[in-house]
Design brief:
One of its GO terms (molecular function) is hydrolase activity, acting on ester bonds. One of its GO terms (cellular component) is Golgi membrane. The protein is an all-alpha fold. Helix content is about 65%, strand content about 0%. Strands 1-2 form a two-stranded antiparallel ribbon. β1 (about 45) and β2 form a beta hairpin. The protein is elongated. The protein starts with a helix and ends with a helix.
Amino acid sequence: MARNLPWVMLIVVVSCLVSTLEASDGDSDPLYKSCVDQCQKTGCVGDTCFQHCKFSADGKAIDGPWYMQEPLYLRWKQWDCQSDCEYECMMTREEERKRNGERPTKYFGKWPLKHVYGIQEPVSVAFSALDLAMQFQGWVSYFILVYYKLPLQPNRKTYYEYNGLVHIYAIIVMNSLFWSSICHSRDVELTVRLDYSSATVLAGFSLILAILRSFSIQDQSVKIMVTAPILAVVGTHILYLNCYNLDEGLHWKVMFGIVGIELVVWGLWAALTSHPSKWKLRAFFISSVLTLCLRMLDFPPYKGYVDAHALWRGAGIPLSYLWWSFVCDDAVFRTTVNLKKSK
């Protein structure tokens, strides 16, 4: 049964893809478009008016003295008259749809989420920040374990041969979660590019780590053979996104492809290994597949705040704890093995 585990979980992933819901774009609604046009002329939607509509794109007052400037933090977040109008008209239109008994719809490819103090996806931001804290806590625990609790070699290096990879992984994953938090706070072009690029680097390095650890690759030439093509794919994808076309659909196809291969590698090792903590590895694999399903699901946000993406971010928090728990166990296991070999 354990040997069939990776393939069973892949079938689950495919099922999640098939179950994805479809939704039409609300931004093509004539009532919504009319609302936005009227708002940009008057600066108001109903009784709600926006200070951004009193300033030009460079932050200078339209009808006021030259020294009147929009607050710098608002200009940095790139909230302007158009974005304010689009958001307010979206929420107004959704309230009308709700009163008429209609289902929520997407606007510009995204579900309507309520903002909190200008933050576009507050729940996703909170979960990404908590996951970042969990990753940092796991990294610190691992650092203390390998350098202060486990024996070291005479040259003060660890006996755990994957120590360097683990430290690099920690830095990459925390960088990715940082930019994820920023992007969920305000998804302008710059933050989206940084979020997509850092996520691609994380996916590529995670695949490298999975292959090197699962197959216990130690030979330097084999490491290069494994790493080079993955880095080439990652580099090409990042260059394409930043220099040619910031294509969200293509980005997620590449991400799902890389993550899918990584899960197969972890799954095969989890099914075949005799590692002392193999149950943690199997739990991590199964949880990763189920978490990936959350990312593939698509449903309207609950109470206007919690959507599938937010749940996916939230599910990553216990997954991070489980991952670092296994890494610490693996460090203890490999240190014990290598210490016996050195004697």
